[in-house]
Design goal:
Length: about 450
């Protein structure tokens, strides 16, 4: 059983992580060698067997208290995403969504949106999120749909993901009235943001985004900033620089990076924007260090992906994931024509098609169709050379390569593994009492 321990060295420390109990061990070089000998089925000396016995006792005491919890426990959508606008007023250099159209431009009609909200209420959905494209291009419909839900007594929480350029006082007041959680896409200071996030006429968007952020902050609206890190400024601006600038507007972030995708016309353009694996590794490690630095300083900044991993590491409960992405069985996304998929990353892949909300038997067949779709994304489909971190975090489809047999492998396995190790190193070496105090015990929310 000791052979399940993942060992690694970072700086001057040897560490081991037991995925069966989420136990982080501080080791010496001799203990690491014993564990590695077990993995190689190599013979042990008497002193090494004694050392092994001590390690095994520690693990046994930790593992005997483990009560595995399967997550999610059942297929039950608690979020509905409404693609109210599959169009956009911008033309970002790295956009993977064909300028927000996902190859099928259109606007969600009011009657179809009302039907979606009726279904959401029937299913017991908790959260409705408006998405695009740029959803605020269809703000009139958003306003009417929320008012429709309010009149009918539907008790939803609301969210929206927007590029922020269209936010005005009327929209900000509406967000305040209905307690929206707003996520705005912005990539950093003006010189960074306007390199890639431009209007269709080539003009930068930063000034208009900041105006929108200021309107939201004037009203104390719950705000997160979505940052996409790109290669064409990686040598000039670090993620630390970017978040330090943006943190005056929000302390909550969703940080991603540009991946190679079919939207790039050729390798030269792809290599201008998409990060290489070594660059992803360094960028993610720098992000982790920045967060822990701020937490030790008492600044409650959050990045949702890293925080979810940290929460899982620290959670005394032991979760066993059923699906590669834990959100797969918990959300449905309604596109402008009524077609339904789990999310925009599965859109137009008929294996994940859940029906159309205009179908009379949509809700009756939904659970069966969600189960069938989710079977294509179970943990058994994820192939890792070492699965020690598989239960600590999720993989989005965009971060995976699908093989012809329907299994998946990470696009950048070394970068992901090194990032998990780097988080564990920080957990072992930082003032975790101060970290948890800063985050208020609520690491993600």
């Amino acid at each position: 059983m000791v052979g399940f321990i993942h060992t690694f060295q970072m700086k001057n420390k040897y560490m081991g992580f037991d995925p069966l109990s989420k136990t982080l061990l501080i080791l010496d070089s001799k203990e690491v060698e014993v564990i590695n000998k077990i993995k190689r089925n190599a013979p042990l000396t008497l002193s090494e067997r004694q050392m092994l016995s001590e390690i095994q006792k520690t693990l046994d005491s930790k593992r005997e208290n483990v009560n595995p919890i399967i997550v999610p426990a059942e297929i039950n959508p608690n979020m509905m995403v409404l693609m109210v606008s599959q169009t956009c007023n911008m033309k970002c250099a790295y956009c993977y969504a064909c300028e927000g159209t996902y190859t099928k431009p259109g606007i969600l009609r009011i009657e179809l949106g009302k039907r979606a909200l009726d279904i959401a209420n029937e299913l017991g959905v908790d959260t409705v999120q408006f998405y695009g494209g740029e959803p605020l291009l269809n703000f009139d419909s958003i306003e009417k749909l929320v008012e429709y839900a309010d009149i009918n007594g539907y008790k939803f929480r609301y969210g929206i993901v927007t590029n922020g350029t269209l936010i005005n006082r009327r929209i900000a007041d509406f967000f305040t009235q209905y307690d929206f959680e707003v996520t705005v896409s912005v990539d950093g200071p003006q010189v960074v943001n306007d390199l890639n996030r431009k209007y269709k006429n080539g003009k930068g968007t930063y000034t208009d985004i900041i105006k929108g952020l200021e309107l939201l902050n004037e009203r104390s609206i719950k705000l997160a900033l979505e940052v996409t890190y790109a290669r064409n400024y990686i040598q000039k601006y670090s993620i630390r620089d970017i978040l330090s600038h943006l943190s005056k507007y929000s302390k909550t972030f969703v940080v991603g990076y540009v991946l190679p995708s079919v939207q790039f016309q050729n390798n030269i353009i792809r290599d201008k924007y998409a990060l290489k694996e070594a660059e992803i590794e360094e960028f993610l490690k720098e992000l982790v260090d920045y967060l822990f630095d701020k937490w030790e300083e008492g600044i409650p900044i959050k990045e949702m992906g890293i925080c979810r991993i940290l929460r899982e590491i620290l959670d005394p409960e032991y979760h066993v994931k059923t699906y590669i992405c834990s959100e797969m069985p918990l959300r449905i996304t309604v596109f402008h024509d009524g077609d339904v998929y789990p999310c925009h990353q599965t859109y137009l892949d008929r294996r994940f098609y859940l029906g159309n909300i205009k179908d009379k038997d949509f809700t009756k067949l939904l659970t069966e169709k969600m189960s069938r779709a989710a079977e294509h994304f179970t943990m058994s489909k994820l192939k890792l050379h070492d699965a020690w971190f598989s239960n600590l975090g999720d993989f989005c489809r965009i971060h995976l390569k699908e093989k012809v047999n329907g299994t998946y492998v990470p696009k950048y396995p070394r970068a992901y593994e090194r990032t998990f190790e780097h988080i564990l190193y920080n957990v072992a070496t930082r003032d975790m009492k101060k970290v948890i105090e800063t985050l208020g015990g609520n690491i993600v929310g």
